[in-house]
Specification:
Elements (H helix, E strand, L loop, with lengths): L2 E3 L18 E6 L9 E5 L7 E3 L16 H4 E9 L4 E2 L1 H5 L9 E6 L17 E2 L1 H9 L4 E4 L10 H10 L3 E4 L9 E9 L7 E10 L1
Length: 209
């Protein structure tokens, strides 16, 4: 059994969404200074690294991360490699040869060449536009993931998110798919159970099938 860790490392200096609270991870108690244990403090946006969006992120009155359906976050998934796509729209998806009845789709794009190794945020990342989101809903996809910090294009994030979240599609952002090939896997993705939160960091793995 081959296990692939597709989570971005959480470390100082990692790329974050413009305007979000940057990561602060610091040791505040030290055994070497007489403390009973080493203890660290964490401060960041909930949309950090590999994370899951909750409906309330773009839908007023929507559910928080504590109500995300675990059945959607665990199960068979298909990684589709679109290395030349600058935007994932309806036309791109029609040609992508995603197997029929696929419920979980993870998009490996040109983003995987620079995420998460670069230390600066890039606005020109590949993402899904509104027509692509509508196509995925029409195909009854339950979960969509992508290899950058947003499923939607920079500067045009609302419509894609509203289409997906409004139709019950779970969104994983910030995956590191650089080490996996196109094909079928079993996905295990568990976000933190942050009550009422619009998002939560997650550890995500793919298991070869």
């Amino acid at each position: 059994m081959q296990i692939y860790d597709v989570s971005a490392p959480i470390e100082p200096g990692m790329p974050t969404w413009p305007g979000d609270t940057p990561l602060e991870l610091e040791r505040v108690e030290f055994i070497s200074k007489g403390a009973n244990a080493n203890v660290s403090r964490l401060s960041s946006s909930v949309h950090l690294g590999t994370h899951v969006d909750a409906p309330i992120h773009f839908l007023e009155g929507g559910d928080g991360t504590q109500n995300l359906p675990l059945r959607a976050l665990i199960g068979r998934a298909y990684v589709v490699d679109l290395p030349r796509a600058k935007v994932i729209d309806e036309g791109t998806l029609e040609k992508a040869n995603i197997p029929p009845r696929t419920k979980r789709v993870l998009f490996k794009t040109r983003n995987s060449k620079f995420w998460p190794r670069e230390r600066t945020f890039r606005e020109d990342f590949t993402a899904i536009d509104a027509s692509g989101a509508a196509w995925l809903v029409k195909k009854n996809v339950q979960l969509v993931g992508i290899d950058y910090l947003s499923i939607a294009p920079f500067g045009h994030s609302r419509e894609t998110h509203r289409i997906l979240l409004g139709n019950g599609v779970v969104i994983i952002e910030g995956l590191d798919l650089s080490g996996v090939e196109q094909g079928r896997y079993t996905l295990h993705c568990l976000p933190l159970k942050l009550v009422g939160s619009d998002g939560a960091p997650a550890r995500a793995i793919l298991v070869g099938v």
